Amino acid sequence: MKNLKGALMFAQSGGPTSVINSSAAGVFIEALKSKNITEVYGAANGIKGVLEEKFYDISKEDMKELKLLKNTPSSALGSVRYKLKDASVDDTDYKRLLEVFKKYNVRYFFYNGGNDSMDTCNKISKFMANSGYDCNVMGVPKTIDNDLFGTDHCPGFASAAKYIATTVMEISLDAKVYDTPMVCVIECMGRHAGWLTAASKLAAVNGLAPDLIYLPEVDFDIDKFVEDVKDVCAKNNNKCIAVVSEGIKNKEGTFICELVAQGARDSFGHAQLGGVAATLANLIKEKTGFKTRGIELSLMQRCGAHLASKVDVEETFNAGRIAVKAAVNGETDKMVCYERKPGKKYEIEYKLLPLELAANTEKTVPLEWIIDDGRNVSDEFIDYALPLIQGESKAPLENGLPRFAKLKKIFVK
Amino acid sequence: MKNLKGALMFAQSGGPTSVINSSAAGVFIEALKSKNITEVYGAANGIKGVLEEKFYDISKEDMKELKLLKNTPSSALGSVRYKLKDASVDDTDYKRLLEVFKKYNVRYFFYNGGNDSMDTCNKISKFMANSGYDCNVMGVPKTIDNDLFGTDHCPGFASAAKYIATTVMEISLDAKVYDTPMVCVIECMGRHAGWLTAASKLAAVNGLAPDLIYLPEVDFDIDKFVEDVKDVCAKNNNKCIAVVSEGIKNKEGTFICELVAQGARDSFGHAQLGGVAATLANLIKEKTGFKTRGIELSLMQRCGAHLASKVDVEETFNAGRIAVKAAVNGETDKMVCYERKPGKKYEIEYKLLPLELAANTEKTVPLEWIIDDGRNVSDEFIDYALPLIQGESKAPLENGLPRFAKLKKIFVK
């Protein structure tokens, strides 16, 4: 535990969320107040910006704009998908980071991201410690996927969940207006964890639950799916709303969308998914002759900041502030996490988790919450997620449209 | 001009909108107050409900729920796509309608819909008049397409426009986070009229205009599109946001999506569109090697009531009320329309237009507003549309999610 004096470097990584900038706002506003923090830097495009010495001087930004960050979706500094090699295999990047840290006297390094980013953060933390360079390293979590280990939920999940539940309610009303058959397949993000898809179940609290929900945690059987849809249609005036995860796989482990088309892969070697809704909608059309619609919630579910949850925005802001306070007090090698207090009333406590525990461990939806032979989720999920989507917090309107933060982004030379 | 005493029959037709029920609320609340209106009926699934004697007794509904209709998307009574034949060809349906009207003493018939529905409404109006049956017939317009003739704009358009502009802003931020190339193609509804696609331009007022906008009013050239995207990418760090109408066609008149797949047709013989964004995104990927994303705003753009424009909700509610007042005062064979008053301050006057003028005439975006060789729209469009998307009006939240109207829907026996 060392109380250091020097610059703070903050970087955003991985897929953006509606509230990732709220953490940035929390970090920046708190860091600018701290006496131990001499400079506040924001790296352009994550760790790449640090490696390339491309970062912004946050003290040059207007406080008004920094506050608007709280309700501005997407990563304002730019993001990156770049996975560091193990230092034991190739330490080139680490040495370069150390060089940059020394040059700018960076004594606080904060990385904001999901699983892969916490892994990056952990590796950097260990390398700096092993090199004898004093730097307090903190992970600030974010991921709409909600799959980080060691935290009750992840910053960004609740806003995406609120977007999904609200949108599924609206689509449910729309898709059922005609007296003719209609099957609607809605696709949510979440490669390996079904939290976002499960969020559609929240619509049940106001009476508009989807008919079928399929999570990637359990095998997906196409023939059974067709039967499930037919069953719902038979009972329900030939209407059916099914919500599926982009990551559903058959029991052989093949992504459903890959059964139709060979998918490209992203830079981490993850299969590049999408098109499940369209694929299944076409299949149902073929098997039943019914009119169908495949709807992909695409980027909207992660950038729909106009539907952000106030709980999420505030917690995410606090996570940023608390990371700064903890680091200034000498904490290092930790990720901020949320612990839910027991009792009926929803309340959380902010805790610090060792980075190696957070890195690379995926938290999926408990199998006992997946019910009805894999086509629905239980009320336990609602009890878990409903408190998270409460309240509204969004950008002020200007000209009837959101006024998002506009940063000057002045590079440090 | 006859002052009639009898029942009012209201029916919703065509594709739903975020605010179509606001007109229903206006009609119902005003009609329930009128001494000349003995009963208030809501037809199940448009004209089909009347033909089949399936309609609800609106007086049995709670006033609280009727008020919630104002912010409940989609057609609460159910909709239909059913085009009446010309009475001169086959008057079976008309005779049946007359029979039902007589049986229930329907003296006020209101039809809520777009182009095709105004045509239906017009035909019914003429048939009743020719049959010597006194019935005041009113068209209440709605269409997100904004293509009805004789009105400054159409109820429902502004809310869809606000949804599109807001969502395009959010997507613009999201799609540009990485330092790698990214081309995003966003698809909006609007078969023959580009009003909705043009609405993406409103994002310009807060600095997030899309780079390219293609309306169906002008020919679409695929090769030129690829060049346009390349040009934008070259100037713009390999990022491009293009917004296209589902209805863009090449100069031979073939829908772009049909160039790839043979489309199905709906019950009116309209080509069933969709998939333009995916088609063009794939094309750009093939031609440039860049990462691309095709995003269809699908049903969300017409049912996203959480983003409704207050101007739209209020005008649409008033349109319903004014239709009732006018009919009770003896008006018939008219459609309610909006006339914009001259001057800088946005204000409208509600007028009545003969139904035959409203029926079947499509109003498209003025060609002089389509600029930059067909890849952008001018500021005149912004001047026209921006006043329409002002203010917010949405359902109250319950459990953090919208509380939409729940009608009892008690059938009249």
Explain this structure.
The structure is a homodimer of 413-residue chains. Chain A has 413 residues and is of the alpha/beta class. Chain A contains 14 helices and 15 strands. The first copy, chain A, has a seven-stranded mixed β-sheet, sandwiched between helices. A four-stranded parallel β-sheet of chain A has the order 7-8-6-9, with helices on both faces. A two-stranded antiparallel ribbon of chain A has the order 12-13. In chain A, helix 1 (20-33) runs parallel beside helix 12 and helix 8 (222-235) crosses helix 10. The longest helix of chain A is centred in the middle third of the chain and has 19 residues, at 157-175. Chain A is elongated. The two termini of chain A are 31 Å apart. Mean pLDDT of chain A is 94; it is low at 262-274. At the A-B interface, helix 6, strand 9, helix 11, strand 14 and strand 15 of A face helix 6, strand 9, helix 11, strand 14 and strand 15 of B.
Q: What is shown here, in short?
A:
The structure is a homodimer of 413-residue chains. The first copy, chain A, is an alpha/beta fold. Chain A is 35% helix and 18% strand.
Beta-sheet strand percentage of chain A? 15-25%
Strand order of the largest sheet of chain A: 3-2-1-4-5-10-11
Low-confidence spans of chain A:
262-274
Q: What is the arithmetic mean of pLDDT of chain A? A: 94
Distance between the termini of chain A: 31 Å
Q: Summarize the largest interface: chains and residue counts.
A: A-B, 61 and 61 residues
Structural class of chain A: alpha/beta
**What is the string of helix and strand elements of chain A?**
EHEHEHHEHEHEHEHEHHEHHEEHEEHEE
Give a quick account of the main beta sheet of chain A: strands, pairing sense, barrel closure: 7 strands, mixed
The general outline of chain A is elongated
**Count of DSSP strands of chain A:** 15
> Radius of gyration of chain A, Cα only, in angstroms?
22 Å
Helix fraction of chain A, binned, reads: 25-40%
Number of helices of chain A: 14
Assembly annotation: homodimer
